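**User:** Hello, beginner here. Are you able to go through the protein record under this note? It all follows right here:
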Amino acid sequence: MSFKPEQLKYSRKNVWAQSSDAMRQEIMNFSEDYKHFLVAGKTERACVREIIKRAAAQGFKFIEQSNGLKPGDKIMMNNRGKALLLAVIGQQGLDNGVSLIGSHTDVPRLDLKPQPLFEEAGMAYFKTHYYGGIKKYQWLARPLALHGVVCLQNGQTIDIAIGDGPGDPVFNITDLLPHLAKDQMVKKLTEAVDGEQLNILIGGIPLKDGEKDNAVKLAILNLLHQNYGITEEDLISAELEAVPAGPAYDVGLDRSMVGAYGQDDRVCVYTSLRAILETTNPFRTAVALFVDKEEIGSTGNTGMNGSFLPDALAEIGSRLHPQFNNLTLRRVLAKSIALSADVTPGLDPNFEGVLEKNNAARIGGGVAISKYTGAKGKYHTNDASAEFVAFVRSLFNRNNIVWQTGELGKVDQGGGGTIAHMIAELGFEVIDCGVALLSMHAPFEIASKADVFEAYRAYKAFFAL
């Protein structure tokens, strides 16, 4: 059998170039809801609440409400309000493993310290400790919002959201004026802003008829107590996060891209959520896993290194099979397949030297699969098998999904990881599969609307197995 040269050569595709007018409109419509999701879930807790709300509206129920399960059932399992699992029971139950898509709900940010409030030079500030991999200078001189929870001594939990509502005030970390920045400007970018300088400006009016010392701090405490019933000691048992204020935006004259905070990795959270909400009666059980703490190593009881996933599958198995045990669980894990749904860097002409062009993902090039991540000699990666790469390629090609390959930078340039290797260590076949971003980990990240839509289509095809 002979082939034409164009049949032998691999060539990249552009989603927009081969989309009909109707498909382009569908992409645009899809992205409107995506932007709403980004604004609704600016913290991992808020993200999980939004997922639960949407899942409940589509008939998903918490597993505690059911003693037994059958094919077609839709269930949820909540892990401390920061991680979540959704599942649609397949025709085979767990006999042939599960089809899992795992993404993470946490995002780089600034966390308030346990004792954050102080006054200096007639102004009140919150001290922070940054979370995840950030460039500290990017967080200066921009409007910030404050989201999270405060747990009172009596057990009551107070939700805080200031800076994104109509008429809300915003917060800020001040920067040094260029006229006086001679010393700052000659420092390395990593040294230009110290971590202890990331203090958030929160007020400047002193309390009347109060102490002269710390009068502004006392005024802020008074406002916090009046509005939320909290005291300074309550801030010790709080999880308050400073995040960029404002909505998600259309980017470009053609509105082809979305610009927003938190697209790593909530772009994959959203697309896998939409995919499983639209999954009915799959052959294999479909599982969407949303975990926390990926940006700091997947630690803790809500991170991928915790026991949430095997425990959840054991709960499902015990409701499907009366004799389900630990050995059965291990067999289920060994038969399971997964997509580690996380983002990859897109080729940026402004910084193209850090990526190797043949293996870099392009914005608008479709969903990106990455055989491996890691650093240097592929440390801390999964490195998907050739067989599973071929399986995913074939699945996407059969469903006319535009896909491309991606890699996390040139060899020895740097690197990073995802939850893929942790899923693989449980026995799964797994590969990274997600959306290419520009300005990853910045307070404002860029994604192509076309790639977001192709990721959704790819995840939906995977769940339909």
Q: What stands out?
A: The domain at 109-244 is CATH 2.30.250.10 (Aminopeptidase i, Domain 2). The mean pLDDT is 95.
